[in-house]
Amino acid sequence: MAIGYIAPMHAPKSSPVPWLEDGEPLPPVDQAHGPHEVMSGLLAASANIGMNRLVQAYRRGVFPWYSAGQPVLWWCPDPRMV
Questions:
Q1: CA-CA distances (angstroms) from residue 22 to 6, 19, 38, 50, 79?
Q2: How many Å apart are CA 7 and CA 75, to the nearest integer?
Q3: How many Å is the maximal CA-CA distance in the chain?
Q4: Which runs of consecutive H residues, i.e. helices, occur in the chain?
Q5: CA distances to 47, 54, 57 from 78, in Å
Q6: Going by DSSP bridges, is the β-strand pair 42-46/72-75 parallel, antiparallel, or unpaired?
Q7: CB 34 within 8 A of CB 28
Q8: Among candidates 51, 52, 57, which has minimal Cα distance to 73?
Q9: To the nearest 5 percent, what fractions of the chain are helix, strand and coil?
Q10: Phi, psi (5° rounding) for residue 74?
Q11: Torsion-angle region of residue 20: left (phi > 0), alpha (psi -120 to 50) or beta?
Q12: Contact 80, 43 (CB under 8 A)
């Protein structure tokens, strides 16, 4: 018997997360998942970070958060806790 996670029927639906290829810029921060979506603040995903993308992200209030061996997830929550 397989065991998995089933989202509650009332869980908000999320839009797809853009996948960024190397050299592709981050989407505008207003395209991040909203506060009532499952992945609130998630903006995009990519295979790697890259120095140019990291600098671009930090200048716009976006930061990477991921685990080793997983895609890089780019976040821009609103409000931002600093």
A1: 34, 10, 26, 8, 28
A2: 22
A3: 48
A4: 51-59
A5: 24, 19, 15
A6: antiparallel
A7: no
A8: 57
A9: 15, 15, 70
A10: -105, 125
A11: beta
A12: no
Summarised one tens digit per residue, pLDDT across range 5-35 is 444 445 455 668 999 999 999 999 999 999 8
Give the residues across from 72 on adjacent strands: 46
* pLDDT tens-place string over residues 37-66: 888 999 999 999 999 999 999 999 999 999
Which region, left, alpha or beta, applies to residue 9 given φ > 0 means left and ψ of -120 to 50 means alpha? alpha
pTM (two decimals): 0.77
Per the listing, tokens 């931002």 go with 80
3-state secondary structure of 38: coil
- 33 φ, ψ to 5°? -60, 135
